[in-house]
Amino acid sequence: MVLVLTRKKGEALVIGDDIKIVILSVSGDSVKVGIEAPRDVKILRAELVEAVKDINVKASKIHMPPSIIKRGGQEPSPLFGKLTVKANRKDGD
Amino acid sequence: MIVKTKLFGDIDVPPESVIVFPQGLVGLPSLQKFVLIQEEGLEPFFTLQSVDDPEFALWIAPAVFIDQSYAPPVDEAEIEDLGNKDDILPMVIVWTEEDEGGNIHTYANFKAPLLINPTLRRGRQVIIDREEYLLKRDITAVMNGASADT
Questions:
Q1: Do B11 and A70 touch (CB under 8 A)?
Q2: What is the residue range of A27's domain?
Q3: Does B32 touch chain A (CB under 8 A)?
Q4: Which CATH architecture has domain B2-143?
Q5: Which of A70, A77, B9, B46 is deepest in the core (most CB within 10 A)?
Q6: What's the pTM value of the predicted model, to 2 decimals?
Q7: pLDDT tens, B31-41?
Q8: Cβ–Cβ of B36/A51 closer than 8 Å?
């Protein structure tokens, strides 16, 4: 469900208890907004989040050939020792 | 516990090896549990295998392995639940693409690293909203053995 509201320059919206969005200016098809929010509220442009998601999905579908790693065989951080699970690929993939 | 994977078949994973991303990955909030799989000779590259989805696996490497100077500015409030800051290791997602000439390039995402605290077994993917942190950085030369600084 999408709530649609019309606001004029200088007017604002409040979301919940501690987020305020102010329309600062409108020029052509650009709208400048100011956002007041607590520090732990992450504010990002939607297309950036979408681009990160796209790479997550794309990278998960590309199974890198081990041969690409020419600098392998190095010691990872000892912190990882307890965490990693050793496995071999199926079918010598 | 047995974890089903497309790449490695069914693998036996001690429950204490499961890493939890409470928010999931960016854009994929349902993927919250992962296992770090290490293959002989490929360290420090790992496969981050989803426990929930056998088909979902990412290649990751410690960011400092590729770029020693990597120190992303992360908001403290964002990583509060990741425990001691000094225990957090930034990892980058690595993948390959073929260019038009048929050459294979390797890329890494330095804009949205996975911050993992191995002691707490907890992780979070954060977005560094600054231009100099690239979403798709060509690391082919580094993979071929060049120093990351060149």
A1: no
A2: 8-36
A3: no
A4: Roll (2.30)
A5: B46
A6: 0.88
A7: 999 999 988 87
A8: no
